[in-house]
Write the structure tokens for this entry.
Amino acid sequence: MDTPIIVMIITFVVFLLMNVPIAVAIAMATFATVLCVSGSTGTVDKAMTMIAQRMATGIDSFSLLAIPFFILSGIFMGKGGIARRLIDFAASLVGRFRGGLAFVNILTCMFFGAISGSAVAAVSSVGGFMIPEMNKKGYDNDFNVAVSTTAATVGLLIPPSNIMIVYALVSGGVSIAAMFMAGFIPGIIMGIALMIVAGFISGKRGYGAGKKSTLMEILISFKKAILSLLLIIIILGGILKGIFTATEAAAIAVVYSFILSVFVYREVKFKDIPQILLQCGITTSIVMLLIGTSSAMSWILAYENIPQSVSTALLGLSDNRIVIFLIINAILLFVGTFMDMTPAVLIFTPIFLPIAVQLGIHPVHFGIIMITNLCIGLCTPPVGTALFVGCGVGKTTISKVTKPLLPFFFAMIASLLLITYLPALSLWIPRLLKLI
């Protein structure tokens, strides 16, 4: 292994162990590597200028404008009473079964995660209501946190999803619309896998079922939730019909969620808007800083020919697609335990995508594989942001949640393997709609 890469890895790990924010750790690791590569001709000023230029280039993209819009739309949805209406609708559908509240939790997180595009928002909004409610009905608190945490990540596979936009950008030509449509079936499969585990555990522990809803009650709850669910239809329909781009769709999502939260549901007041905009600005700045620093690191990796070296090394181990993708999945699962989704996609897509293409894997299919891996990472320590938020909402600790989390974790791994080795699960809808 070359000296610059050793310097990068050591610097990155040291800053992570010091509990430095991930964006700063990436920036400092890149800075140290650039100095190492420059050698005696390198100076601090030159290294900083080079990194700043690469960061600016990394975020200079029209497609990335969709991210702050979707973030703002998600905040309006989170504060506008959307979660409660989706919970009522999900309860009318699946609340009658044994362990029905766990099913309600999972289904609502899938709905809400898709609408808000944020696993953290789903955990805090849905989990903030469902975990106490499940506690009242005799469900174990740590089990409830495990359900909420894992279910919240599923929504990132169901469009619209910010991370799919990032992948489409860094992959160099993959259609955002194709990525959006490719996530539907994998997201549903993972949600069903979590429900199977929740149902088995609930039956074994005797967690109660709710009352059976009548057709009229289902229709009433659907009527209350339909305006929220329409957001997905409007965005995807507009993109697929060519009425607007993904970025324009994100702006429309903001207008729609604003009208819904302020004028229809009336749960967001005009006095709340400055705080919402501030929250959006802070979140956007964090995401863009991650994208910028990760772009700089991706550049230095490419400069040092790391993608080609990794490709040669992996293909040298085996020419069997099954073995290669087991290795790639294992690496991405490990990466997901300490790195957030956005920098992981930006750094590892240029490394692994050429290998996937060389093995005959469609870039859209590989994108879903990568995002599924990193979704699992959101609920695994030490940097599982969804897990941290879930533990905070449930007033428990990671050590207590780890054991009840394991069955759900294994269900997600099983779903990942299905998604990896059955390409049709990801590619059927995009091909049906002639997006690829």
Notes: The chain has 21 helices and no strands.
